[in-house]
Amino acid sequence: MSSYTEKQDKLSRKSAGEGYREINAEKPRFQEEFRGYFKEDLYELIRSNFPKPDAEDISRAAGQFAEFDRAELNILLHPGKFITKKGKRVQAAYLKAAPAIYKLTEPPESRKALISQKNWQYQISQQEQSQIYQNRTGKTKNQINQTKTEPEKIEQTDQDQIKQGKIGPEKIDRGEEKVQINPEFSKWLSIASKASELSFSCFEGFFNSSPVILEKKGPEGLPLLEKWTEIGISLAEKSNQFAIIYFNHTANAVVSDKFSADSAPTSFSGDVSSGSAGLEGFREFISLGEKFSGLNARLAEVYFEHLPGMLDLLSHEGLRLFYSITDSLLKFRWEIAADIFDEAKDVFSAIPPPRQKELLTALNKFAGCMETFPSCSDRAAAAPALFKNAPAAMANLDSRGFEAWVSIAEEITDISSDAAVTFLNRSPGALRYLKINELRQWAEKGITLLSFEKQAFESFYESSFKGLEKHLQSLNSEERNLLLDIGAEIALINPGCTGSYFENSPPALRLLSGSEFKTWADTGTGISKGSSSSGSDYFKNSVTSFRKIPASYHAEILETAEPLLEKDWLLAGKFFENLPSKIGDIRKWADIGTKIYDTDRNLSVDYFTYSALLLSELDIYELEEWALKGLEIFKNNASLGRPYFSLKSRSSNDFIDELTGGVALKNVANILRYYAMGLSGTSFNIRSKKELPGYTITGSVNPIISGRTIFLEPGIKKFQG
User: If DSSP codes are grouped into helix, strand and coil, which group holds residue 702?
Assistant: First the structure.
């Protein structure tokens, strides 16, 4: 006798010796009575009936099936060929779902059912024992020397009759012994047999979804599951792809108590017939899912994934309106509807229920127009932005203010949906510091001044909100209006410069006085007329320079730039791009550039670009001498001019070396004065020739003597013999 049978007999004798009644004894739990070897036996038992799933799936199932006694295991492990003949995925899904379904459908009193203790050792059929023995030993069925007992033959016959449908599994009657079986589980198997006619993916989805429906609906679960399955079967007749989505993604939705006749969205035109009454509202939502599936399968999945959350958040009226809106958006572009679904749970959970209707009414203005005005696609395109940002706007607005905010967005949308999206995305942040009336004035500046120029219109909204949002708290209403007025003008002149202007104008307003700021803005406007890049660079570079330069020089710098702007916007741009560190020589530096411009525009651009670096080694007069030398070279050979001023020619670098090889007069004036006194016995004053009226650089080493004053060149060059 095998160890398996010996332990069975030992248990039976022990039970009888302790006075257990064969008929009235309570059924021992499987895991309690077969310690030490039951898990291995149970694994083999499951494997013998379900050979296709992976070992991991079988092992996991063994842990769940250990809760059941022999009679229950017989039911669970013999569901019928419509399951056991299916593939690996279906069998694994059944093994995962069946234990949960059995417990969910089991009446409380069934755990107290009476069963013959003696008959327990025959609950595993001869065929199953043979398979287990063969799995363990490798021996075939014919090598097993075992005789069936009469009770086993009776039981095997009963099982065969159940499988053949000759008797129901609710009750097996063998005279003195009655085994009560879970009739609701049998009903579930009956429903499963209908789903088995569908694709493997649908059938697998049925098993995965069944526990969800039965657990949440309790006693109503099986009738609901049956209706739900019938709807899925009808859908499969039209589209297997959508049926797969249905069986795998709608269980959490169908259990909602929102699905009744009065919750059905009346605008839907889908046709979902199931042959069973009820679930009218659910069918309507499935109709919308079919529309999604026809456009994009993933979209339908997203829709059903989000549906349960929306059912919990919205009223019946809200649901009807929301899905009517979504249905309208499908006429425009399905991606828009998908965006709405992705945001729905977060949006509605952030809005107090009394105000949800306000949002839905507003959203309907953007989406509902598709019904009567198919050309209003711009509004539909802006609908997701309105939906996503409504909670933030509502946090700072009452109902009237929110209505005004939506109205502003509508006006902007009629001109440009891109500008409207910008407004909807960024204006809620501005509402933390602005009243709705000032926000309307802001928007109307663009509508009034720029509506005829779409690019300028869009740039104004994008740049103004992005550039000013960090400074709204520090700016007063008058300052905000000033910046917006100038920004609108710049947007009309060159939309490409508005971003840099709005980013840099708030700090410029703090760095400069009122008149200086006006000059700064006028200069930027002038440069922007010539080039987007130069205009943008001006607004950025000038503010960077003003932060480093003492405020006492700001006015002089701006005044110096004005004649440059009058000559050429490019000169003014290069001037601010390359301001030298020696601000005291700024006018002279600019004048030299102007003289060069009169000879050649390109040379002056190179001069402003490169000469500022030379002022760290040369004084302004040495720089002027270098520039005049370059002009002389240019006049003799024009091709050598630009390399000279861009510091790429040998002659330019040699001349710089020559200039830097000398010394500034101011650094040696005292030494020369004492030297002259030593030679002549007379005290002389040493002065620079630049103090003489009409002085120009000549490079002459000859001094000019006037009384006791000696005038020398500003720079004393090294002596060349």
Answer: coil
* 707 phi-psi bin (left φ>0, alpha ψ -120 to 50, beta other): left
Task: Give the span between the Cα atoms of 118 and 353, in whole angstroms.
Answer: 63
Give the mean pLDDT of 505-512: 96
Contacts of 439 (CB under 8 A, 6+ apart): 405, 408, 427, 430, 431
| Residue 181 contacts residue 71 (beta carbons within 8 Å) | yes
Residues for the chain: how many in total?
Answer: 721
Cα–Cα dist 242/293, whole Å: 6
290's CB contacts (< 8 A; 6+ apart) are: 235, 239, 242, 270, 272, 300
Name the pairing type of β-strands 663-664 and 685-688: unpaired
- Among residues 349, 283, 355, 357, the alpha carbon closest in space to that of 325 is found at 357
Measuring CA to CA, which residue among 436, 417, 458 is closest to residue 332?
Answer: 417
Res 137 pLDDT > 60: no
Residue 332 amino acid letter: F
Give the alpha-carbon dihedral of 84, 90, 94, 96, to 10 degrees: 130
The reported pTM is 0.68
Read off the pLDDT of each residue in 659-683 and give the average, rounded to a whole number: 73
3-state secondary structure of 177: strand
Residue holding tokens 């593939």? 87
Q: Answer whether 689's CB lies under 8 Å from 697's CB.
A: no
Segment 462-488, tens digit of pLDDT: 999 999 999 999 999 999 999 999 999
**Helices and strands in the chain, H and E counts:** 37, 7
CA–CA gap between residue 422 and residue 458 (Å, rounded): 8
Can you read off the two tokens belonging to residue 202?
């649908």
Q: What is the mean pLDDT of residues 157-184?
A: 49
Return the minimum-mean-pLDDT range out of 20-29, 409-418, 455-464, 514-523: 20-29
The radius of gyration computed from the CA coordinates of the chain, to the nearest angstrom, equals 46
Checking if the pLDDT of 120 tops 60, the result is no
Q: Is residue 244 very low, low, confident or very high in pLDDT (cuts 50, 70, 90)? A: very high
3-class SS of residue 711: strand
Any idea what the Cα angle at residue 557 is, between residues 555 and 558, rounded to 5°? 65
Give, as one character, the DSSP assignment of residue 431.
T
pLDDT bracket for residue 113 (50, 70, 90): very low
Contact indicator for 178, 114 with CB cutoff of 8 Å:
yes
Q: pLDDT tens digits for 184-239?
A: 899 999 999 999 999 999 999 999 999 999 998 887 889 999 999 999 999 999 98
Tokens of 647: 């510091």
Burial of 672 (C-beta count, 10 Å sphere; 0-12/13-18/19+): middle
Structure tokens at 64: 């769940």
Contact in structure between 603 and 641 (CB atoms under 8 Å):
yes
